[in-house]
């Protein structure tokens, strides 16, 4: 299949393209600045620019583009960029594929477990209602934009992704230095649930959904979330470093603002990948310690 991939240069998009090629597919990046001579397609989501003719021959779409939610303090302007990068881009792309004469068979659109908000110990599956904080509101509107493709008869999934574990980029990569220095520790009370997935399983799950019959929301998280205290002690054990001292939250709050810290670091989301498991997807990494050892190449 020729598969259009937005956010192709990001952590997930880069790994996804490699996996698609390995499976015999042709990924087609959707980017603002295609390299000369490449087969990438140009768009400008904020300006509403995408040439419908460029999409001829596209058989599936994986839409991952969006402003980083952890790229800086959540000023009003930054929050507007986070929202608009998702709603404008998703609407533009969904409307475009809906208008094609020969439409793609499937539209997989990014979302996040931020949809659920801060839910304590509650087990959350795809039928659970949305939360009421900023990120939940972003996800609700983001997913609604993808429904423009579904209304045109294209099988559409919204990918509610958890914390993606990778040694080079993302949340885990940012934690590695303090943990390796022996100053890593739990955040806050440590009782908050963290729903994670390895990059390998994230990409495998997306490939599974490209060929599945599933539609609607899909949680992309491993089956066994852990509390932050367990994540901390497990990472310390894998790295063979102590994790005795809790990390005070005032320091990241001063740097990034309290709202961002509470929404990303202290939020509790105990998410179950019910749809994926019911559809027969087999996780390569179900439990945290072997997952971290695989990601960090620690026997």
TrEMBL record:
<dbReference type="Pfam" id="PF01370">
    <property type="entry name" value="Epimerase"/>
</dbReference>
<dbReference type="InterPro" id="IPR013549">
    <property type="entry name" value="DUF1731"/>
</dbReference>
<dbReference type="InterPro" id="IPR001509">
    <property type="entry name" value="Epimerase_deHydtase"/>
</dbReference>
<dbReference type="InterPro" id="IPR036291">
    <property type="entry name" value="NAD(P)-bd_dom_sf"/>
</dbReference>
<dbReference type="InterPro" id="IPR010099">
    <property type="entry name" value="SDR39U1"/>
</dbReference>
<feature type="domain" description="DUF1731">
    <location>
        <begin position="247"/>
        <end position="295"/>
    </location>
</feature>
<protein>
    <submittedName>
        <fullName>TIGR01777 family protein</fullName>
    </submittedName>
</protein>
<feature type="domain" description="NAD-dependent epimerase/dehydratase">
    <location>
        <begin position="3"/>
        <end position="216"/>
    </location>
</feature>
<dbReference type="Pfam" id="PF08338">
    <property type="entry name" value="DUF1731"/>
</dbReference>
<comment type="similarity">
    <text>Belongs to the NAD(P)-dependent epimerase/dehydratase family. SDR39U1 subfamily.</text>
</comment>
């Amino acid at each position: 299949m020729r598969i259009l991939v937005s956010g192709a240069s990001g952590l997930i998009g880069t790994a996804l393209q490699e996996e698609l090629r390995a499976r015999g597919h042709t990924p087609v990046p959707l980017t603002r600045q295609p390299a000369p001579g490449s087969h990438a397609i140009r768009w400008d989501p904020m300006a509403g620019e995408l040439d419908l003719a460029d999409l001829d021959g596209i058989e599936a779409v994986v839409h991952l583009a969006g402003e980083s939610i952890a790229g800086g303090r959540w000023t009003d302007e930054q929050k507007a960029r986070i929202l608009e990068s998702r709603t404008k881009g998703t609407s533009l792309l969904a409307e475009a594929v809906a208008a094609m004469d020969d439409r793609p068979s499937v539209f997989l659109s990014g979302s996040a477990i931020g949809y659920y908000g801060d839910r304590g110990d509650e087990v959350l599956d795809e039928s659970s209602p949305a939360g009421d904080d900023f990120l939940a509101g972003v996800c609700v509107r983001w997913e609604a934009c993808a429904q423009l493709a579904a209304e045109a008869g294209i099988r559409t999934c919204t990918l509610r992704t958890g914390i993606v574990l990778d040694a080079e980029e993302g949340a885990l990569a940012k934690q590695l230095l303090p943990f390796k220095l022996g100053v890593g520790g739990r955040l806050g009370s440590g009782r908050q649930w963290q729903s994670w997935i390895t990059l390998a399983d994230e990409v495998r799950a997306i490939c599974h959904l490209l060929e599945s019959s599933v539609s609607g929301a899909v949680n992309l998280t491993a089956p066994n979330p852990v509390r932050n205290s367990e994540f901390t002690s497990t990472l310390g054990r894998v790295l063979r470093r102590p994790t005795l001292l809790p990390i005070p939250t005032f320091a990241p709050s001063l740097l990034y603002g309290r709202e961002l810290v509470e929404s990303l670091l202290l939020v509790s989301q105990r998410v179950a990948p019910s749809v994926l498991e019911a559809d027969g997807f087999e996780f390569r990494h179900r439990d945290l310690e072997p997952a971290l050892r695989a990601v960090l190449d620690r026997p």
